[in-house]
């Protein structure tokens, strides 16, 4: 579920802030080239080897036992991968493991699922990392530092997306591939590895990069459980947020199986508008989506869903929309996040002016709702909400604009 995208400058950073597999005397160029290890070399290393970052702890323990080692050694390996600020990325970094155990891992396992292709810096300090997958496609991950000591990593869950939300650049790509558990987890590991020295702790994870997370739910639930493991990356479940466009059966499953936070990208107050700008609504309409949340959230204590609402000028930003929104979310423990639309090439929408966003927000507050306004971050490098990805020549078609909105566009 993409946030909207930002523009970026090419990356430059000091060697001291970059952790790589090579020695501490490496120059920034050498470090970056290590991270950009050629795909061919990476392929040799994977082959039929086990991908360690695709396993949760109990799977890792079983795998270690199956290789003839004590399950207790699995915890030391887990901590090398995720804990103690190690974030091991290559076999040389498996420090503190017994020699035989390390030799076995070198021969039979791979630690790495992604290769850094480039890092771009937006004028507001937001970073966009482009990762190459082993089989060629590129995904994007965004690191968003915040003045209040919070730094968020926005991870992707798919290459492209099948949902075809009309305001989203990623949606133009169509679905190219689901990401594996390891490919998702490693985005958060890289965020810590590359930026902890510069930004301090990476505190939050949002699944708001490329893709609809619930379309890849098995890998997303597993990846988020690895991220919150208290012996590993140890993110607070409240600070790991999975965002969906509204896949209702998967949403129910997530609420039953995961203790992480949920965000729902709502973006409209009528089925007419939502059917157009978010075609998933034709399958799971507002009534079904919100009714399900109302029922399910009664069963969870101290849990509030975050509704995201991208403000599109003349489409969903009237004061009548604000009043309908208050009615629609009645009985659902929630917060509302109003998001300024980030234009991208070929987009047909215009952003709502700031004054109107404030007016809209004030109506919601008067209606008793908790409301945040999300400022655009990283949009000069196409790193803001809804701007990720590269559709290329083949793009999903835009849907017919309902007649009454043609003037607004
Ligand atoms: S098309 Fe929709 S669901 Fe997919 S990434 Fe974009 S906003 Fe998220």
TrEMBL record:
Q: What is an example of a GO molecular function annotated in this UniProt entry?
A: metal ion binding
Keyword tRNA processing set for record: no
* Alphabetic keyword roster: 4Fe-4S, Cytoplasm, Iron, Iron-sulfur, Metal-binding, Methyltransferase, rRNA processing, S-adenosyl-L-methionine, Transferase
What the entry lists under SUPFAM superfamilies is as follows: Radical SAM enzymes (SSF102114)
Q: Where in the cell is the protein located? A: Cytoplasm
Q: Does the keyword Transferase apply?
A: yes
Q: Ranges for the Radical SAM core domain? A: 147-374
Coiled-coil stretches noted in the UniProt entry, renumbered to this chain: none
Give the matching PANTHER family. 23S RRNA METHYLTRANSFERASE, RADICAL SAM SUPERFAMILY PROTEIN
Write down what this protein is called. Answer: Radical SAM core domain-containing protein
Taxonomic source organism = Digitaria exilis
């Amino acid at each position: 579920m993409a946030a909207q995208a930002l523009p970026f400058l090419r990356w430059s950073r000091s060697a001291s802030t970059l952790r790589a597999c090579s020695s501490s005397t490496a120059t920034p160029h050498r470090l970056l080239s290590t991270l950009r290890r050629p795909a061919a070399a990476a392929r040799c290393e994977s082959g039929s080897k086990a991908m360690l970052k695709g396993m949760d702890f109990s799977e890792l323990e079983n795998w270690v036992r199956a290789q003839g080692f004590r399950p207790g050694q699995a915890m030391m390996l887990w901590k090398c991968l995720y804990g103690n600020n190690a974030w091991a990325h290559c076999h040389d970094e498996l420090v503190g493991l017994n020699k035989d155990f390390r030799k076995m891992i070198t021969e039979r396992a791979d630690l790495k699922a992604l290769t850094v292709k480039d890092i771009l810096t937006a004028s507001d300090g937001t970073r966009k990392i482009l990762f190459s997958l082993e089989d060629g496609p590129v995904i994007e991950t965004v690191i968003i530092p915040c003045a209040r000591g919070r730094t968020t990593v926005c991870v992707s869950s798919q290459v492209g997306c099948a949902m075809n939300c009309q305001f989203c650049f990623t949606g133009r790509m169509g679905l190219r591939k689901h990401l594996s558990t390891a490919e998702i987890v490693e985005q958060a590991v890289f965020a810590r590895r590359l930026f902890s020295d510069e930004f301090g702790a990476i505190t939050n994870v949002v699944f708001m990069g490329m893709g609809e997370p619930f379309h890849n739910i098995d890998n997303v639930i597993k990846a988020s459980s690895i991220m919150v493991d208290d012996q590993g990356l140890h993110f607070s479940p409240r600070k790991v947020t999975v965002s969906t466009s509204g896949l209702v059966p998967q949403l129910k499953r997530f609420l039953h199986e995961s203790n992480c936070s949920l965000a729902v990208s709502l973006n409209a107050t009528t089925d007419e508008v939502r059917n157009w700008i978010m075609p998933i609504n034709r399958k799971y309409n507002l009534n079904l989506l919100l009714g399900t949340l109302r029922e399910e959230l009664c069963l969870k204590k101290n849990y509030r869903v975050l509704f995201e609402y991208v403000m599109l000028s003349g489409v969903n930003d009237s004061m009548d929309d604000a009043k309908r929104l208050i009615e629609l979310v009645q009985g659902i423990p929630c917060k509302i996040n109003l998001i300024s639309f980030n234009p991208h090439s070929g987009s047909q929408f215009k952003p709502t002016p700031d004054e109107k966003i404030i007016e809209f927000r004030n109506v919601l507050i008067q209606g008793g709702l908790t409301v945040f306004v999300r400022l655009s971050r990283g949009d000069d490098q196409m790193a803001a909400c809804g701007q990720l990805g590269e559709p290329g020549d083949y793009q999903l078609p835009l849907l017919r604009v309902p007649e009454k909105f043609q003037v607004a566009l």
